[in-house]
Amino acid sequence: MTVTRVLVGTVGVALMGVGASLLTDVRDLTGVLVWLGGAVLLHDVLLAPLVLLAGLVLVRGRARGPVRGALVVGGALTVVALPVLLRPGRRANASVLPLDYPRNWLIALAVVGTVMVLAWAVRGLVGRRRPPT
User: Domain containing 121: what range?
Assistant: First the structure.
């Protein structure tokens, strides 16, 4: 497990370096900093408390972890998709947003839900196979 953590950490640091290098191309960092600050606030003030509350109130037992994970991923997908979802309709330039984003957002949420159900089922199967202690 330690090797996996080191590898994942190394990849994460490398990707942070790529992101930092891309910031050198930005002419006005104020907009980027406002966007990043807003994302942190949105996550810490709204998304995380709602996920934890929903996991606490709605789910008990082995399903709590997969449900919370699905809520976190679904919430993040929704936050990323909000600008497009809140401005439906035709664009002046059709090449700016050429895909059907609401449909693709729903497909992504369906995939998250499917993975959550599979994770819950695997937890149930693994839990049944373990001998009682």
Answer: 27-89+96-129
